[in-house]
Design brief:
This protein is of the alpha+beta class and 100 residues long. The protein is built from three helices and four strands, in the order βαββααβ. The protein has a four-stranded antiparallel beta sheet with strand order 2-3-1-4. The two termini are 21 Å apart. GO terms for molecular function: monooxygenase activity.
Length: 100
């Protein structure tokens, strides 16, 4: 299962977000059930970032979202949002990367 999250940050907090992310990225990536994750930034709007994470099961994602780790991250970064976060849980229909 893939989780896509779009975060729109206040311009003055983009660097705060990146610095904070750098302190927790390995912990998130190593969380049980997480197959890997990425942070991506919009090329034209640096205040828009996306997290892309893959999870073994939906339950693994829920365990992360209910974890002490998530509880230690979310209240901090939420203060830096310009807009409410948007999130999608997806299943892959076609993966062209896998056949290249």
């Amino acid at each position: 299962m893939t989780r896509l999250v779009k975060l729109t940050l206040k311009e003055e907090h983009v660097n705060d977000f990146i610095a904070h992310f750098d302190t927790v990225k390995e912990k998130i990536n190593a969380f049980p059930g997480c197959k890997g994750m990425k942070l991506m930034r919009d090329k034209n709007s640096p205040g828009i970032v996306f997290t892309y994470s893959e999870w073994k099961t939906e339950n693994d994602l829920e365990n992360y979202r209910n974890s002490e780790l998530f509880a230690s991250i979310w209240p901090t970064v939420k203060l830096w949002f310009e807009k409410k976060a948007e999130a999608w849980s997806t299943e892959t229909y076609f993966d062209g990367f896998a056949i290249k």
